């Protein structure tokens, strides 16, 4: 059996009931086959793949907090410090009832390669909790965040591990966590990114993931003789990534006609009203059912359905495995040109394969959504020099990072004979830097 197959089999056996982690490992290792096969003897001897798929450390802890009625709740907190070969662990904190160790491990594993692709000095990590922020009062959110950080603060620091936002964790949660870290550790340092602007946050971090997704998509289209101008775009999700993806797509001349949340989706044939979406989601924290009050000609549908709409470019920006084979078939039937992942692993393995075989340009999340973490690294740089850069400066650097990133994955795909396969290109380009750093640092 080949080394790649052997390690995949062991990951599945040794990490039972973690299907998302298996899926992420399988995708990466399958892509690396061409590189691993060429170095099989040395890689086996050095257990390169075993060291890659086993986190350096995983922390699981109790998070007790008291609700507004005096009831005590206990959630589970996680931080997986996956790989520090190229820099301090870096990656978001997800707060969602579906969170479990396998999901945090899949996200942490992806983060290793994504962070490497940014070209910046950040290792891979991820954390979170099965806490559900929906419907909680501000005081309850604060109580949870303080309890979560009371334990997490023992394991993180500006030069060791720097968490940030993800699903359910935005500026409010980062603020409460930062306050608790500072109180307990007595350190005002860049231990979290996505901070508010008044206490060390970076301009353009809020916009970065969505904007970066569009900068990369535009470059990819340009290199294939296409452009965003005049295209129809469908987006899923209506959170941080989705909102700023929609905003930038419209700035670049496309028309975005959908968005969604976990209960339903909106079709707005005239183009999504971003100001209305921000008010509903960022200010009032309401459901998408409110959208038709702002836009009477739009349609609201319960359940799932964004991918049934005819589109040129599909941008899944909600969560993992939200675009399956049936959705992919519909998209292809409707003539989709490109799919770029704003979320982490939103496309199932079968759907990805089908899209690629159908000639759709497909860019995986670890490349397409890397603008968020890249700008987090720029926030870390600003914190280190105790300065704040202008929006224009950060945004320009973000654009450069995404354009370079696209060319790196495109070149890696070509170099190994898989031209146009951005999944293989991203995995190989991300892996090369990490494995080089791991080899240089010895068996640690
Ligand atoms: P938010 O919490 O701001 O928004 C998440 C959006 O996705 C909401 O509209 C939410 O709907 C929807 N959603 C979440 N879970 C589900 C689900 N199980 N089923 C259906 N809809 C769901 O998160 P972000 O925008 O920050 O993150 C979105 C994706 O992008 C995630 O995969 C995240 O890992 C990834 N990502 C985020 C980055 C960042 O900088 N924030 C960077 C790179 C990737 P509802 O509100 O109803 O739950
Ligand atoms: O998935 C991701 O890249 C993020 N949630 C952002 C991580 C970060 O550290 O900014």
Give structural notes:
The structure is a single chain. By secondary structure, the protein is an alpha/beta fold. It has three domains: 1-54, no CATH class; 56-191, 3-Layer(aba) Sandwich (Rossmann fold); 207-368, Rossmann fold (3-Layer(aba) Sandwich), CATH 3.40.50.720. It has helices at residues 3-14, 19-38, 40-45, 48-53, 101-117, 138-152, 171-185, 205-223, 240-251, 274-283, 291-294, 325-333, 349-357, 365-368, 370-385, 391-415, 422-440; strands spanning 57-66, 72-83, 89-95, 123-129, 161-164, 232-236, 255-260, 264-267, 299-302, 313-316, 338-340, 361-363. The chain has a seven-stranded mixed sheet with strand order 9-8-7-6-10-11-12, sandwiched between helices. A five-stranded mixed sheet has the order 1-2-4-3-5. α1 (3-14) packs antiparallel against α2 and α15 crosses α16. 52% of the residues are buried. The mean pLDDT is 98. The structure holds NADPH dihydro-nicotinamide-adenine-dinucleotide phosphate and (2Z)-2-iminopentanedioic acid. The site of NADPH dihydro-nicotinamide-adenine-dinucleotide phosphate has 24 residues, from α9. NADPH dihydro-nicotinamide-adenine-dinucleotide phosphate is lined by residues 96, 98, 165-168, 209, 237-242, 261-263, 317-319, 342-344, 369, 372.
What are the key terms here?
alpha/beta, Rossmann fold, five-stranded mixed β-sheet, seven-stranded mixed β-sheet, globular, binds NADPH dihydro-nicotinamide-adenine-dinucleotide phosphate, single chain, binds (2Z)-2-iminopentanedioic acid, 3 domains, 444 residues
